[in-house]
TrEMBL record:
One of its GO terms (cellular component) is Golgi membrane. It holds the Pfam family Glyco_transf_34. One of its GO terms (molecular function) is glycosyltransferase activity. PANTHER family: ALPHA-1,6-MANNOSYLTRANSFERASE MNN10-RELATED, ALPHA-1,6-MANNOSYLTRANSFERASE MNN11-RELATED. GO terms for biological process: protein N-linked glycosylation. The keyword Glycosyltransferase applies. The keyword Nucleotidyltransferase does not apply. Keywords: Glycosyltransferase, Transferase. InterPro entries: Glyco_trans_34. This is Alpha-1,6-mannosyltransferase. It comes from the Eukaryota.
Amino acid sequence: MEPSLSVENHILKNLGKKTYRNINTYNPLNITHPPSLFYLDPRSLSPEGDGKESSINMIVPQDCSGFNLGSFMVRRSAWTDRLLDIWWDPVLYEQKHMEWEHKEQDSLEHLYTHQPWVRPHVAFIPQRRMNSFPPGACGDGTNRGIHYQEKDRDFLVNMAGCEWGRDCWGEMYHYRQLSNRLNRNPWEKFKDEVSDTWKKIFEEKKKDKQKDKQKDTKKNT
């Protein structure tokens, strides 16, 4: 939606201020956090991990049903290699495909819930900063924490679930046109304003003519 924004400035710069480590800030899955196992180190027992921006290896938004992997980010690190190896391991993933409706999303949620080493390196980001939804996904479009807000010029829109009873192409075309309109240069805006002004003038003239015709027909009858 906003091609002029860079990922570096919009998300990665001042990452600690744009993300939250404590999932209780927004916890639609009601995951118990932090874990209370007696053998864990202080970092794993802390709701914020070590609190350092440098320890963030994964950035995930959440929607109304939990982790949303429509847009997420990982840092190249030994932790990430380990996570990806386990995340996609057939023993974990393929054996659960009948139980896990959302597949890789459910798999990651399972790891986050049951593997304490995962949590200190995961940071959550408000959904609209990198993964806004259109109306029809997670409700009718009235949730300001989830749904696209034109006035705020959200970064992008994810047509999540559009294949289930919605018009995917229609939604993509609508937001493409909206993005083009919002990102016009000054000359394009001026031309459109002139065009809109003339359209209004012609429409008003048409209405006046129609009113005059109606008056004439009434007089003749």
